[in-house]
Amino acid sequence: MKIGLFCNYENYHQNARRAIFEQVALVRQAESLNFAEAWVSEHHFSEINISSSMLLLMAHLAGVTSTIRLGTAAVLLPFHNPIRVAEDIATLDNLCNGRLLFGVAKGGPFPQQNKHFGISMGESRARMLEGIALIHKLLYENEVSFHGQHYQCDRLTVYPKPLQQQIPVYIASGDDSSIEFAAQNSFSLMGGPPFALERLKKTLSQYRDINPSGADNFVLARFFFVGQTNADAITEAMPFIRQFSQKMKANSAVVMQNSSNGHKAFDRSNICFDKDYLIENSVIGDPITCRDKIKKFHDELNLGTLALKPTSFDMQKNIESLQRYNQEVRNYV
Question: pTM for the complete prediction?
Answer without folding.
Answer: 0.95
